[in-house]
Write a structure and sequence with these properties.
The chain is α/β, with parallel strands linked by helices and about 230 residues long. The chain has helices at about 15-25, 35-45, 65-70, 85-95, 110-125, 160-170, 180-190, 195-215, and strands spanning about 5-10, 30-35, 50-55, 80, 100-105, 130-135, 140, 145-150, 155, 220-225, 225-230. Helix 2 (about 35-45) packs parallel to helix 3 (about 65-70), helix 6 (about 160-170) packs across helix 7 (about 180-190) and helix 7 (about 180-190) packs across helix 8.
Amino acid sequence: MNNAALVLIAEDEPEIVDILKAYLHREGLRTAWAADGRAALDMHQALKPDLLLLDVQMPLVDGWRVLSEVRTRATTPVIMVTAHDQDIDKLMALRVGADDYVVKPFNPAEVAARVQAVLRRSRGKDETPADVLRIGKLEIDLEAFHARINDAGVQHPLPLTLTEFRLLAHLARAPRRVFSRGELITACLSSEGDVLERTVDSHMSKLRKKLEDAGLPGVPVSLRGVGYRLEEVA
């Protein structure tokens, strides 16, 4: 199983973890367990799992915050697990960046099947490493926190702050999607405490100037009263 995909189970109920482990192992998958949200974030960073099976109601840091923070630094597939069978919860999971959604009580065989399905989809997207995003001339290394413009073989590093990098990476994961200021605050600026929406505009203005100086003008695009999107970068 050394070459098998690694599934990080973020769940605070040991009985559920034992069942999930048994079914995932039958599928030939490796597993690791995080008993609270903070441990899930630390283990995600250290282990770089192939998939995160994430319970919403986690101690210390809840599943929504874990998902949001994971999405600022990686494209790891995430399946959310919750006891709430509400459409608003499903929509929230997908909007924040989950790949699938499972409701408790669940059939563990179905969960294992969904894990395999999400892994197959994620592997089939492209051959670009999961920790590198490439959109046209723009290249973003999520692990090294480094971004640059590659123009006809000439590389122009982008001197971004951590917040600017997080904003750019978040937009780059779905370049055609419009993200509201509230979504960007939750995903990229939540660690800064109480943040006003106009703070997002300030960061975006500085990010746009740096991209323009590196030869990529006009992005991110601002949609008045709605939010921002990266657009397709030529």
